[in-house]
Design brief:
The protein is built from ten helices and eleven strands. It is α/β, with parallel strands linked by helices. The chain has one domain: Vaccinia Virus protein VP39 (Rossmann fold, 3-Layer(aba) Sandwich), CATH 3.40.50.150. A seven-stranded mixed beta sheet has the order 6-5-4-7-8-11-9, with helices on both faces. Strands 1-3-2-10 form a four-stranded antiparallel beta sheet, with no helix packed on it. The structure holds S-adenosylmethionine (SAM). S-adenosylmethionine binds next to helix 6. The site of S-adenosylmethionine has 19 residues, from helix 6.
């Protein structure tokens, strides 16, 4: 797992009592079984029912996060109640360049918590203040709050239920977690985001939603000059187009209009000396459709 994620083994061992390492019982799907998953992904794309990202309209997120907020209010805060709808069990998930299946229907979600914990713990351990953009149900801030009892945490999102869930998390852990309404497409709310030169910024499966419209948010980050920007996102430029499973992931990514162009844009900024890229890595793990946890860490110079 350490090799797949690209962090030292110690990062996977952080707080095992709170975030136990999942039972890694899985079978690699080969031959016709692998072909069938690729077919399945392509058929779902062809059905044309998947909603493309990129529109400046939060209505769907308002509805989806409203449902999870109600569950959190009814059942309390936990990893399970904060689990977003997109972690629903599917016939297979992607791991190490293969499709794998498990007898545990929550295998992909449990492994995702491990991957999130390891990446957040590894990259953000040295920063006293962390702001997450597109924080969703607050799952990453819930993990961060327990990994790092002393850090200042803030979550930003463009819909109210998301910030309401941060309130529930803060109350359940009895520690403050700030919240700001902010739109990554048009930067509405930007003046209220407490971003300072000592702050680390994180996005996870959130900039994916911007499609090719990442320039305003990139400009915002360059302007605010945080100490570190960590992105945990599906990065389409890092796939191997000659591999059938990757070709299906690329097709899925483009069909959903997920983030595209950001990696070359950052490489160009690094080339001209405006930023330093600290890490760029394809993380070979994700749901049946694509690898969602590839990492880009950089800092403005
Ligand atoms: C796929 S969810 C990821 C949530 C969370 N970061 C995670 O790791 O599970 C995408 C999040 O981005 C938010 N989002 C999408 N477009 C946005 C925008 N233009 N501005 C701010 N937030 C946005 C959504 O409300 C949602 O919370």
């Amino acid at each position: 797992m350490s090799e797949i994620i690209g962090v030292p083994p110690a990062a996977l061992e952080l707080m095992p009592a709170v975030f136990p390492f999942p039972f890694l019982g899985y079978r690699i799907l080969r031959g016709r079984k692998r072909d069938r998953v690729v077919r399945n992904v392509l058929d779902l794309i062809a059905e044309g029912k998947l909603r493309p990202a990129g529109a400046n309209d939060p209505a769907n997120w308002m509805r989806g996060w409203g449902c999870i907020r109600d569950i959190v209010r009814d059942e309390g805060v936990s990893l399970e109640t904060l689990s977003p709808q997109y972690h629903k069990p599917l016939p297979a998930c992607r791991l190490g360049g293969d499709y794998v299946e498990s007898d545990d229907p929550l295998f992909e979600f449990k492994l995702s918590v491990t991957v999130r914990k390891a990446l957040l713990g590894h990259f953000l351990k040295d920063h006293g203040k962390i702001v997450e953009f597109g924080c969703g149900t607050g799952l990453n801030l819930f993990i961060l709050a327990q990994l790092f009892p002393d850090k200042e945490l803030v979550g930003c999102d463009w819909v109210a239920p998301s910030l309401e869930m941060l309130g529930e998390i803060a109350a359940s852990l009895d520690r403050p977690i700030g919240g700001c309404t902010f739109n990554m497409l048009d930067l509405a709310g930007g003046d209220d985001v407490p971003l300072a030169p000592d702050t680390a910024v994180v996005t996870a499966l959130a900039m994916e939603q911007l499609g090719k419209d990442y320039l305003p948010f990139l400009g915002f980050l360059l302007d605010k000059k945080p100490a570190l920007c960590l992105h945990i996102e599906p990065l389409v430029e890092l796939y191997d187009a000659d591999d059938a499973a990757d070709a299906a992931a690329i097709r899925y990514h483009r069909h959903r209009n997920y983030l595209e162009g950001y990696v070359p844009a950052l490489r160009a900024l690094a080339g001209e000396g405006t930023i330093e890229i600290i890490s760029e890595r394809r993380v070979k793990f994700g749901n049946m459709f694509h690898d969602q946890y590839s990492t880009l860490a950089w800092r403005p110079l």
